[in-house]
Write a structure and sequence with these properties.
alpha/beta, six-stranded parallel beta sheet, 13 helices, binds MU-OXO-diiron
Amino acid sequence: MKPVELKNGIYWVGAVDWAVRDFHGYETPRGTSYNNYLIDDEEPTLLDAVHHDFVEVSIENISRIIDPKKIKHIVINHIENDHASGFARILDIVPSANIYLTDRGKKGLERFLDLSRYKVSVVKSGDTLKIGKRTLQFIETPMMHWPDSMFTYIKEEKILISQDAFGQHLATVERFDDEFVNNRSMDELEDSVIDYYANILMPYGNVIKGKIEEIKKLGIEIEMIAPDHGVIWRSHIDKVLSLYSDMVDAKAKLSAVIVYDTMWHSTEQMVFPIAKGLEDEGIPVKIIKLRATPKSVAIKEVWKSRGVIVGSPTLNNGIFPSVAEFLTYLKGLRPKNRLFAAFGSYGWSGEAVKELYEMAKAMKLEVFEPGIRVLYKPSEEDLNKCYEFGIAFGKALKEYHAKT
Ligand code: FEO
């Protein structure tokens, strides 16, 4: 894609990755983009780089605006590889550029690059840099997404460069939120924001909440939020801020998701009467079979649902591997404010349900016990018990939702 002008003299010069489906183990069915930005001011400034596989695309985009050798300043808002692995190539072209990053950014990046060869300045919140007509203000945002992260605010243009925050893993021809909504839909954009938050930022909700409050107190006006992935926000800023406000509090609608896997369909047979019980209690329910669904999608559905019911057969005295993998991933994302229950079939020992509850308790989730277990294959009576289990969980979920 060609460069796209955000405002007079400020350009997106990134790259769209249409093909990526595995983003460090996180499935990205919609691809992604690596966004970086060029300010063509008296002292040309590059904000962030891109993944090293796409750095030539970004350099070509920069070249359509200025000779890349004229870049005077480089701001590194975040050192994760999807952004920072392209810097080595850019620094080959402009080794004399002044580099700005946080202290944690410098300590991290020097593990990958010999920074002693360059002019590096460590910046902190409140520091500014005049580049001509514009002034950059730096705002440290540790854990949004890594300890090194920061935002850069372009004061005169009221543009916030927000690196990972407010991003989406979306490969699109549209660069702005309103274009995407016009050509696609707000529902898809919202779903992408939630998917990204649930899989990338979920563990840091409290930190993000504090940082958003801090930015509000700075009283800075924002006309555009330009993240390092996905579309740039210029028309629906209130919408994405409101989505984040709900997400940092781990809010979810009264709904449930059943996430399961199965060996010989016995655990699977338990799913449908449980779902029917929930439906009859008026709880909207989604069903996710793990081996048929990307893990990231299952995580997103957990994030959207107040109630989480997990089903696993017992295999080798433990949880079925795909379910264990899912829960290990979920545990790292530190979910909260969810009511959990478990079920599953077994042949002789039947430890899986007990272990599922142990994992949920280790995550400090509220649990609805006891779970339900079935020997070998559910009988008619067992299926009725599953239905009653769904009804009982639905009632408990309504109470839990009302009081928390
Ligand atoms: Fe897009 Fe945390 O990197």
